[in-house]
Amino acid sequence: MINQGQQLLAAFSDSAKLDCKILLAFVLNKETSYLLTWPEKKLTEQEYQAFITLFERRLQGEPIAYITQEREFWSLPFYVSPATLIPRPDTELLVEHILARHLASDLSCLDLGTGTGAIALSLASEQKQWQVHGIDFSEAAISLAKKNAQRLQLPQVELYQSDWFSNVAANKKFNIIVSNPPYIDEADQHLIEGDVRFEPLSALVAQDNGFADIKRIAKDAQVYLTNNGALYFEHGFEQAAGVRDILKQLGYQSIETFKDYGGNDRVTCCIYLQLK
């Protein structure tokens, strides 16, 4: 069954065999390792029909994460839904760099556009004393993030609806502000390819060649950052120079860009120093 499915999926999925294993394990309510341990396992008619139903959804291009309603991030299990982006391995760079650069145990962090809560909850899982907030414009996303917080037993993370900073208390200050905002240009052809076709456009697309939300966040963040506070962005691999220019024009210091696991510019960070 796996070999047959792999051949059918190979035309558009570069992980066709793994896709089949994940779907089959999901139907059996087992880990994928079970398939190796019990290769002679025969499916019941009900299990077979359930697999075929899920497999046909995958054949239509629907992402595995939306079919199984789950995706691993930072070695943690996250519920996902079509209301949010699917957490991607490259976004773990944000978590890595923040944890490596901020070692104090009494810091406050704001995750803008939290989606599933992947960034906020991953940080909180490593630094349980931090005051972590995660906000999103989408009520459905916040509902899902709260479900993930409960699942991961991280009730200390504050998750609430906000159009960027609109519902953040005006007197609130953060040592760290992080965002994986919409940064894809409206005319980008990648929007009609692969998994992206199924993800919410509001979480993907930004005006001004993809820079509109980055500009807005970078400007407004200065009101909410502590002196010497850090701002982190995930962005498109061709946007690094543009993001650095935006930050430089706003007076940010120590601007740096980091590459993702594929060697592409992916994360840019900076420091906010208040003028005396």
UniProtKB/TrEMBL annotation:
Domain Methyltransferase small residues, every copy: 91-188
Catalytic activity, reaction form: L-glutaminyl-[peptide chain release factor] + S-adenosyl-L-methionine = N(5)-methyl-L-glutaminyl-[peptide chain release factor] + S-adenosyl-L-homocysteine + H(+)
UniProt cross-references to InterPro entries, sorted A to Z: DNA_methylase_N6_adenine_CS, HemK-like, N5-glutamine_MTase, PrmC_N, RF_methyltr_PrmC, SAM-dependent_MTases_sf, Small_mtfrase_dom
Release factor glutamine methyltransferase N-terminal domain segment(s): 2-68
Parts of the chain that traverse the membrane: none
Amino-acid positions noted as binding S-adenosyl-L-methionine in the UniProt annotation, renumbered to this chain: 113-117, 136, 164, 180
The protein, known as: Release factor glutamine methyltransferase
Phylogenetic lineage: Bacteria, Pseudomonadati, Pseudomonadota, Gammaproteobacteria, Alteromonadales
